[in-house]
Amino acid sequence: MSERYLNYIGGKWVEPSTGDYYENRNPANWDEVIGEFPRSAKDDVDQAVAAAKKAYKDWRLVPAPMRGLILRRIGELMVEHKEELAKDMTREMGKVIKETRGDVQESIDTAFYAEGESRRLFAPHVPSELPNKTGYTMRVPIGVAGLIAPWNFPSAIPAWKMFPAIVSGNTVVIKPATDTPYTVYKMVQLMIEAGLPPGVVNIVFGSGTKVGIPIVEHKDTNVISFTGSVDVGRDIAERGGKYLKKVSLELGGKNAVMIMDDANSELALDGVIWGAFGTTGQRCTATSRLLLHENIHDKFLEMLIDKVKNLRLGDGLIESNDVGPLINEKQVKTVHNYVEIGKSEGAKLLIGGEPTTEGDLSKGWFYKPTVFSDVTQDMRIFQEEIFGPVLSVVKFANFEEGLQILNNCEYGLSSSIYTENLLYAMQAARDFETGIVYVNAPTIGAECHFPFGGFKNTGNGHREGGWTVYEIFTEWKTIYIEYSGKLQRAQIDNV
């Protein structure tokens, strides 16, 4: 029998109220059970929120730099355990080991950045318009933060959410993704070892329906942070809006790379391969649309297909492999359905286009890296997020046409241009309708100290990352101090 793991509530590991568990399996080898995790329910959420609310009373009064010292210790412990965390994450999520090392490193960077921000929760002091009166502002915590994390970055995205929330003085209840609970479990173990007081962080494992929705709708969760699909994000916004909660949503992407005819083709090729097939295409920032200038279209496609042919699929723990499995069988079916749609719409399948169970891949959810050409803007594979290793190629004649094609999308997360022309680079930075723009780099590779998020259906305007995430997890308070010894009436006595 595999090991059973428990919820963490109020400083204790506790059984779920349901008494029910589910198996967490390795997507590269579905026979391997990593562990059994709780199928929790609303009662467990109620307990966790109550514990977080109780802990908040004291935690909010701990000076922010002191909270930051605990975050530094969390980062140091993650450094010590980096390889162990990365290997376990590869077993749980599937992406290759070099990527899970990067995932853990982003969590480490976020912890150390959070320590720095604990001494930089700046707030302006503004002159009063009246004599013998002053005014200043404060950043204060909000209360209990409900955090709902996705499965594609099992360490980095929970860190993006937990660490800023905690260092800002909030307490948290986190629901890890059902496909990747083990990584957050291990992270919280290190947070406990670092000295985080009981109740400051609480984990409730389980589904979106049974755990996620109760977190969003609980009267005592004050801020919600969600990363996931657009449809679920809209539902969360509606549910949270009924209670006037602050809700941060980071949703989908349909990211494009534009390659001009003056680009460094080798550099662009490496960027496209990494952007399209890194994490097996399971990133919200993955390159899923490739826009090629007509002067280089045919030659670049030849180079691309040659490169894709040499990508090695397999278990991510084998260092020589380039592409791991998809997360589960459902995702294989979703990706393959889109491939069939692309073929039926008239796109030309150049390579891939099917699952593979050959040899060592027989027990996992592997899908061959796939490239379509002759894609048009009205095709679903051009417009809809696939979340798999599928790249759609479109030809364009000039920068203006390429710009129109790139912006013709309901998402606006990440984009990229490859060019040696400063004019094109600066126009792209100004005119690409995405929250992130890369010049001569792929659409993936965000750094923890920059704002992360996008336009249109990619989210609701918040930015998780950098200094902007602290806007999500704090409220502004304005204080006026009168020392004139008399009544002064602003806007009346100052004229």
Give a verbal description of the structure.
α3 packs antiparallel against α6 (181-193), α4 (97-117) runs parallel beside α5 (156-167) and α9 crosses α10 (297-309). The strands form seven sheets. Strands 14-17-18-13-12-20-21 form a seven-stranded mixed sheet, sandwiched between helices. Strands 9-8-7-10-11 form a five-stranded parallel sheet, with helices on both faces. The chain has two domains: 7-251 and 459-478, Aldehyde Dehydrogenase, Chain A, domain 1; 255-439, 3-Layer(aba) Sandwich (Aldehyde Dehydrogenase, Chain A, domain 2). Helices cover 37% and strands 22% of the residues. The model has no long low-confidence stretch (mean pLDDT 97). The protein is α/β, with parallel strands linked by helices.
Describe the secondary structure blueprint for this structure.
Layout lengths: L6 E3 L2 E3 L6 E6 L2 E10 L3 H18 L4 H17 L1 H12 L3 H21 L7 E3 L5 E9 L2 E5 L7 H12 L3 E5 L5 H13 L7 E3 L4 H10 L5 E5 L2 H12 L4 E5 L4 E5 L5 H13 L9 E7 L3 H13 L19 H17 L2 E4 L3 E2 L9 E2 L2 E4 L6 H4 L6 E7 L2 H9 L3 E2 L1 E5 L3 H10 L4 E4 L15 E2 L12 H4 L1 E9 L13
Parallel strand pairs: 7-8, 7-10, 8-9, 10-11, 12-13, 12-20, 13-18, 17-18, 20-21
Antiparallel strand pairs: 1-2, 3-4, 5-6, 6-23, 14-17, 15-16, 19-22
What is the CATH H-level superfamily of the largest domain? Answer: Aldehyde Dehydrogenase, Chain A, domain 1
Based on the coordinates given, report the CATH architecture of the largest domain: 3-Layer(aba) Sandwich
First-residue to last-residue Cα separation: 79 Å
**Unreliable residue runs:** none
The CATH class label of the largest domain is: Alpha Beta
Beta-strand fraction estimate: 15-25%
Give the tally of structural domains.
2
Total helical segments: 15
Mean pLDDT: 97
Briefly note the structural class of the backbone: alpha/beta
Which strand order does the major sheet show? Answer: 14-17-18-13-12-20-21
Radius of gyration: 24 Å
